Amino acid sequence: MSPSDESVSQLMSTPVVTVVPSLPVGELLRLAESLEIHHFPIVDDNGLYGLVCTCDVDSARPEQTIAQFARRVIITVSPDGTAREAAALMAEHHVGSIVIADNEGVWGILTREDLAETVPEVVRRLVCGVCGSRQHLRHRRDGSLLCPACAANEVDSTTD
Questions:
Q1: What are the residue ranges spanned by the domains of the chain?
Q2: Contact at 8 Å (CB) between 109 and 74?
Q3: What is the C-alpha separation between 127 and 145, in angstroms, rounded?
Q4: DSSP reduced 3-state for 18
Q5: Which of 47, 86, 93, 147 is the most buried (most CB within 10 A)?
Q6: For the chain, where are the alpha helices, taking DSSP H only?
Q7: The whole model's pTM is what?
Q8: For residue 59, how many other CB atoms are within 10 A of its CB?
Q9: pLDDT tens digits along 58-96
Q10: Per CATH, is 3-113 categorized as 3.10.580.10?
Q11: Are 35 and 123 in contact (CB under 8 A)?
């Protein structure tokens, strides 16, 4: 079996730290710092509600709830999915993490960094189009990716 056929359940981060939609941003940031993680699946009584990354709340006030910043379209793969499948979904949807979930709930989370050695040919393409960073990428209108620093520089240069 090639590394890219490895099950995501062998690569995902567990136990996954989930949060509730009503969690204040300030508490999320404290949790992120203490656990040294950046991506949090959000769950409510109905199941998977969304996903939030610390970069999503950069400009938020500490008392705001994370529900206001949640990404509601969540890319998931089942626990028996492969590393190649997860990497292809990341590339297709230009995301830095995928939630590992099925009908029973959230099992873990898999980030771009988790796949860097297993499926490098796919992950290598998921970089900032300006500086090459892999951190907290966002879509540009032309389909390319930008990290927050380059996105801020791009906004600054258009307002000058």
A1: 3-113, 127-160
A2: no
A3: 7
A4: coil
A5: 86
A6: 8-11, 25-35, 83-93, 112-115, 120-123, 148-159
A7: 0.77
A8: 8
A9: 889 999 999 999 988 899 999 999 998 998 898 888 788
A10: yes
A11: no
